[in-house]
Amino acid sequence: MASLPNEPRYEHPSHLRPVYTAPKKRKKKTSRLTEWIMFSVFALIVIIGAIALYTQYAPSFKTVPNRVMEGFKADRINILLIGVGGPTHPGEGKDLADAIMVLSLKPSKRQVALISLPRDFYVRIGHFGVHRLNAAHGLGEENGYPGRGPALLMETVEKILGEPMHAYVRVDFAAFEKIIDQIGGVDIYVYRPFYDYMFKDQFHAGWQHMTGKRALRYARARYVDASAEGNNFARELRQQQVIAALRDKLEHISAQQAMQLVGIARTVSKYTDTNLTTGQMIDLYSMF
Where are the alpha helices (DSSP H) in the chain? Predict the structure, then answer.
């Protein structure tokens, strides 16, 4: 049998021949780039967190700016008086502002005005939305607002009144009682008799000498048997009466004794403080 000629070997055209290519290194570069980005983002988060922690716990973050010198130049000094429940407040609400007043001073004429603001007044409080005015202090305390509760309440009151607040004084229930007891109590004229169901205390009409605890009850009374004394306006008037009675007692002591009272109040509770300097307190006490 005749042998068949060898079959021609098939070859790919040169332009179609498979060519070996080395693995691309782009994936490795991409992986390194991803790692670098992730590390950078993590580092940025750590830095921002560290700054936030430092800012929150730094003394300057907790300090409310003192603008009393601006008030002297404008011949009008507005000091926000804040009464809070503090640890001795029954139930919840120890951070709420139980009393909110503005002490407005005119140095050139040595005139004093005391303005009470309704604590249940609904108002927009910063970026926290609409709340009762007394919630501003609590929101500032609980959410780490710069300057805490006093700062947020001051800013809110400024928007309501259209007047700058130059400083603040904050006193809680415990310090309030202690101060009044230290000066021997206060004398207050009760305009209308009433009985308070929460404190179970009867207030008769006429002059009454009150200890710190009783003066606090008189100022805070809400659950009463007389409708005329059960509204916010009557309550604010009673608070002003207590402040006026305290002022009358302070007129008969020296500036040094007044500073001792401030020191006593501060040791009673962490909630009792002010951003007024000692020098400013002495100057204002002597002037007014």
Answer: 26-57, 59-62, 68-74, 135-142, 148-161, 173-182, 212-220, 232-250, 255-268, 278-287
Would you state the structure tokens that stand for residue 18, as one six-digit string?
């498979």
In a 10 Å sphere around its CB, with 0-12 CB exposed, 13-18 middle and 19+ buried, how is residue 212 labelled? buried
Neighbours of 85 (CB within 10 A): 20
**Mind listing the pLDDT tens digit for each residue in 271-287?**
888 999 988 988 888 88
pTM: 0.73
Cα(272)–Cα(57) distance, integer angstroms: 19
Query: What's the CA gap between 224 and 203, in Å, rounded?
Result: 10
- Tokens standing for residue 102: 């503005």
Nearest Cα to Cα of residue 172 among 204, 196, 141: 141
N- to C-terminal Cα separation, the chain: 138
